[in-house]
Design a protein that fits this description.
Elements (H helix, E strand, L loop, with lengths): L2 H6 L14 H7 L10 H9 L1 H16 L2 E7 L2 E4 L4 H7 L7 H15 L1 E8 L5 E7 L4 E6 L3 E9 L2 E6 L3 E5 L12 H22 L9 E5 L5 H15 L14 E5 L9 H16 L12 H30 L8 E5 L7 H11 L5 H8 L21 H8 L2 H23 L14 H12 L4 H15 L1
Helix pairs in contact: 3-4, 4-6, 4-9, 7-9, 14-16, 15-16
């Protein structure tokens, strides 16, 4: 029964294949004739659904503000490159687009269509000189059996503009049902968005033309002639129709009004719209507390942190890695693009981490890891939260005389007054100039002041410094 399977795997491979064997089949399956899976309703939902509009704009505008930097790889380290040509290009992508607009459109297109495209225009030397964001609904990928993607076709008013694969950067979200195009969150949010739209339309129509009052039945209990029946209908429509919302008085026999419609209360209208809102925002990764009118300040802060850590940051990583893969090779090897880590940090947790690292890292390692400071000549010694009391010989070598020791204590007292005064004047940014305090002790005091948020914390830092001097 399984002989045919055995024949397939008879020859075991001793090494990896140079090319993926499925590429040709994938390219044939996704032939150009199938075209791009464009969704004409996505842009319309963005225009008509307030919650989709809010969700996409929150992501696109917040992401457009995040700074992107270029680094050079040096072993396991990343060395920052000041004012790299790519950073200059992104700052002015083309004559019609700013940096903010470029990334806003890129991130917005990824949320709206699941795809975003950049067209690169370059000079004779082969480096990009302009970046243009293209509309995903106009773009079609042309598969290739060897190179996966042969190129792209950009359609405008029936005109097909061919674009080489080297000229286009294709950002896309994961799509389990397609090999070449990304999947938009709107596909998952469509039912909730349409339900919310229909509820909003029903609410508008209820207070709009011809639907001022819910539907019902006029039951004429007594028999009337055909002429009177037509008169009753005419007078009902003339007086009751439209938006006048008048009470109708009819001549004729005994009649009874029977309401068969549902009111907003019966349908739990507001709760239904809140449910649709929550579902849409959750699909896009927007915490409800960011837009809820009932959110407390604490809830809003937690929601903002969750949004940055679990939604926005992941989308920025996707964009940065694509730029590293397809755009930075124009400028040379061993380059990587990364966003500044905008994720909020827990001050208490960071301080606990620094304290835990004291017995494990040297001063230079602490400076580089936690404060991004350059090494110092005296920084190869370990840091200790409670440095041992110096021996008499060490104390004599450090202070040399009582007058020098007094100068250290006096400067610590002056520094403490300076730090306490700066708590009352946060606009003051001038640093305290250290001259008598030893460099090691000055570093520990500076590190402690970074996490001292009140007067008691400041005093505790200097008390520990004096105790260390003995």
């Amino acid at each position: 029964m399984f002989n045919w399977l055995s024949d397939l795997f008879n020859a075991r491979r001793k090494r990896l294949r140079p090319h993926a064997p499925h590429i040709e089949s994938v390219a044939s399956h996704n032939s150009f004739g199938s075209g791009a899976p464009t969704d004409v309703h996505s842009a319309r939902l963005y225009e008509q659904s307030p919650w989709i509009y809010i969700a996409i704009n929150r992501i696109a505008e917040a992401g457009a503000l995040a700074p992107l930097k270029v680094y050079r790889l040096a072993g396991e380290k990343r060395v920052g490159i000041e004012n790299h040509p790519l950073e200059q290009l992104l700052g002015n992508p083309n004559p019609m687009t700013s940096r903010f607009e470029l990334f806003e459109q890129t991130l917005g297109s990824l949320e709206l269509h699941g795809n975003a495209y950049w067209f690169l225009a370059g000079d004779a030397g082969g480096q990009p000189r302009e970046i243009w964001a293209l509309r995903p609904d106009r773009m079609t990928v042309v598969p290739d059996r060897q190179t996966v993607v042969r190129g792209y076709l950009y359609a405008i008013d029936g005109q097909m503009i061919p674009l080489d694969a080297l000229e286009v950067i294709h950002f896309r979200r994961w799509n389990p049902g397609n090999d070449y195009y990304g999947l938009s969150p709107i596909s998952a949010a469509r039912a909730a968005a349409l339900s919310d739209k229909h509820m909003a339309d029903w609410n508008r129509n209820t207070f709009g033309e011809d639907q001022g009052v819910p539907a019902g039945i006029v039951n004429i209990q007594d028999f009337i002639s055909e002429t009177d029946f037509e008169r009753v209908k005419r007078e009902w429509r003339n007086n009751y129709g439209g938006t006048a919302r008048k009470t109708v008085f009819l001549r004729g026999g005994s009649m009874e009004w029977q309401n068969i419609g549902f009111s907003h209360t019966d349908l739990d209208f507001l709760q239904g719209r809140r449910a649709q809102r929550d579902e849409i925002l959750n699909i896009f990764g927007i915490p409800v507390a960011l837009v809820s009118e009932n959110a407390t300040e604490a809830n809003a802060k937690v929601a903002e942190r969750l949004f940055i850590e679990r939604t926005l940051w992941l989308k920025l990583v996707r964009v940065a890695q694509k730029i590293t893969q397809e755009l930075l090779p124009f400028y040379g090897a061993d380059l990587v693009a990364e966003y500044d880590d905008i994720r909020p940090t827990d001050t208490d947790a960071r301080l606990a981490e620094i304290r835990a690292a004291y017995p494990l890292l040297s001063i230079n390692e602490m400076r580089a890891t936690y404060f991004q400071l350059p090494p110092v000549p005296w920084g190869d010694v370990a840091v200790s939260p409670h440095p041992p009391a110096p021996s008499p010989i060490e104390r004599e070598g450090e202070l040399q005389s009582d007058s020098m020791g007094k100068a250290v204590f006096d400067e610590l007292a002056q520094w403490e007054r300076f730090a306490l005064n700066r708590l009352d004047k946060p606009e003051q940014t001038r640093p305290f100039e250290v001259s008598a305090v030893p460099d090691e002790l000055a570093f520990e005091v500076s590190a402690g002041l970074l996490f001292a948020g009140d007067r008691e914390g400041v005093k505790s830092v200097f008390a520990g410094a004096r105790e260390g001097l003995g």
